[in-house]
Design goal:
Blueprint lengths: L3 E8 L3 E10 L2 E11 L3 E3 L2 E3 L2 H19 L5 E6 L4 E5 L19 H8 L2 H8 L8 H11 L1 H5 L1 E6 H10 L4 E2 H5 L4 E2 L4 E2 L1 H6 L10 E2 L3 E5 L2 H7 L5 E4 L4 H7 L9 E6 L3 E7 L6 H5 L3 E4 L5 E7 L3 H12 L6 H9 L21 H11 L8 H27 L5 E5 L6 H11 L2 E4 L4 H14 L5 H11 L3 E3 L4 H10 L3
Parallel strand pairs: 1-6, 6-14, 9-12, 15-19, 19-20
Antiparallel strand pairs: 1-2, 2-3, 4-5, 7-8, 10-11, 13-14, 15-16, 16-18, 17-18, 20-21
Length: 489
């Protein structure tokens, strides 16, 4: 038969999952083998990734998948959030627990970097937007505060690739994930040697870049034995979760589409053929991340569901527990347009009392403050909608492209209110789904690598045929338009 199965390990900032993806008769099905929390782990005054625990969860998932398929999967691939990395010592082992990108050590590092090379030049050399947690700035902070650990470092491996390394022993840097670090020249797709030299970062510590879809190795004999599987092929898919998510956008061939990969972050952008690096994309801070099969993601990181996740965490710590559906429901029942905040406000980036931060912004802009979780949730939804429109309007202006549909993919498609509000404020159709876009993209890149699927185009068609895509038509556009125009920033 033409049926083949693949294992996708998909790690998000809040949760991770091991999925079994099966493709048969041009249809993709996903089955969840194991799901677990990821998230920041406090260690002293830092926050880190508990890599050992996460690795254990991943192994549980792989073992379940091996059992389920009678060990017949074709390959396995890993994807994760960007920018973070593990430091590998000369003995091949992790030197310490990797830092979480929201750790405070990166504060001020963009300014430090710009003393060495101007921001405009860094952008020219990379095409990547300035986020204080980019790998470049994390390394700079390490050089300043703990040079000794860098002395001991043999290899720096980005997160998804780190788990692949732990299973197969091969150190590599998958291109899409490497691109997030702001050290790759997006015009060539290679580490930018000149930039690295300028920042005195030893290029030898960075494993060679491999393209998405490369078979990088096999699960080691020991690991295979432990997991009850054969020495499965390890594929570098798009190791960056957003690259996988966008690979799985069920866009119609000739439609003019934008995407919103909606999860902890809202990544809103366009797929383009070449990086767009100029004064405008620099001053407006659009990024050019590497995508699969020669594509570039011109996009912006919008703060996203993090605003809700972090508010929820605060309420929970203060004895009030709300589920995500409850929070959505509360927002839905609350009058819209009561207040709006700039989701890009820098303090939102860090963990901490989110409702208070939101209130500070509301107050500054002359809106009424509130203690009510319902109102806070509403403000977040309305504010995200505003950010989406601002971003899409600028993208269209910068590229001269007009879009007629926004594809929302990822966990955020479960927030039906947010999807509807996006349609309303944009005055455009929203097509929402699949929820598991990232895992789908991961599997599809493996399927292209194995020859079962021919191209990215065919992969996208397959997604459209395999999952429900919910259409939201814009409503109340006059009111939303008036609201958008009233926003004071
Ligand atoms: C989304 C994501 C974004 C990246 C952010 C931090 O999960 O990968 O693309 O900017 O996490 O790594």
């Amino acid at each position: 038969s033409n049926q083949k199965s693949y294992i996708a390990v998909d790690l998000g900032a809040e949760s991770g999952r091991v999925m079994l993806g099966t493709i048969s008769d041009k249809k993709l099905t996903l089955e969840e083998m194991h799901r677990f929390e990821t998230g920041a782990t406090p260690r002293g005054d830092s926050i880190r990734w508990d890599v050992e625990r996460i690795f254990g969860e991943i192994k549980t998932g792989i073992a379940a998948a091996a059992k389920k398929t009678g060990d017949s999967a074709v390959s396995i691939a890993f994807d994760s959030w960007g920018v973070d990395f593990g430091l590998i010592g000369k003995d091949g082992k992790l030197l310490e627990e990797p830092f979480h990108y929201r750790d405070e050590r990166n504060l001020g590092m963009i300014d430090e970097a710009s003393k060495i090379l101007s921001k405009r030049e860094i952008y020219e050399n990379t095409g990547i937007q300035f986020l204080q947690f980019n790998t470049l700035f994390q390394l700079l902070s390490l050089k300043k505060s703990r040079p000794e650990i860098l002395e001991m470092t043999d290899k720096i491996i980005m997160m998804a690739d780190l788990f692949a390394y732990m299973l197969c022993g091969r150190a590599f840097s998958e291109y899409t994930l490497a691109s997030t670090g702001q050290m790759v020249d997006m015009r060539t797709g290679q580490w930018n040697s000149k930039l690295l030299k300028t920042f005195d970062i030893d290029k030898d510590m960075l494993p060679e870049i491999v393209k998405p879809g490369t078979v990088v190795g096999k699960i080691s004999p020991e690991a295979a034995k432990e997991l009850g599987c054969t020495e499965l092929a390890v594929v570098a898919c798009g190791s960056h979760d957003t690259a996988c998510a966008v690979a799985a956008v069920p866009a119609e061939k000739d439609s003019q589409w934008a995407y919103l990969s909606s999860g902890t972050w809202s990544l809103l952008g366009l797929e383009v053929d070449e990086p767009i690096i100029n004064d405008e994309t620099f001053s407006e801070q659009f990024t050019n991340e590497g995508g699969v099969y020669g594509t570039i993601r011109l996009l912006k990181n919008i703060m996203g569901l993090w605003l809700i996740q972090e508010s929820r965490r605060y309420w929970l710590e203060n004895g009030k527990e709300y589920s995500y559906p409850e929070l959505e429901d509360m927002a839905e029942k609350t009058e819209p347009f009561q207040g709006v905040v700039d989701t890009q406000y820098h303090e939102f980036m860090m963990p901490g009392d989110m409702p208070a931060k939101i209130n500070r912004c509301l107050e500054k802009l002359g809106y009424e403050c509130t203690d009510e979780p319902a109102k806070i949730s509403r403000v977040i939804v309305d504010s995200l909608a505003v950010a989406y429109r601002k971003c899409l309007e600028r993208l269209e202006a910068l590229t001269g492209k007009k879009t007629n549909v926004l594809h929302i993919v990822g966990g955020g498609t479960k927030h039906l209110l947010l999807c509807q509000c996006a349609a309303n404020i944009l005055g455009r159709k929203v097509a929402a789904g699949p929820v598991e876009a990232t895992a789908s993209g991961n599997v599809l890149v493996q399927a292209i690598a194995s020859g079962q699927v021919e191209s990215l185009e065919e992969a996208r068609e397959m997604v459209a045929n395999s999952f429900e895509v919910k259409i939201y038509e814009p409503k109340d556009t006059d009111k939303w338009d008036a609201f958008y125009k009233s926003v004071p920033f």
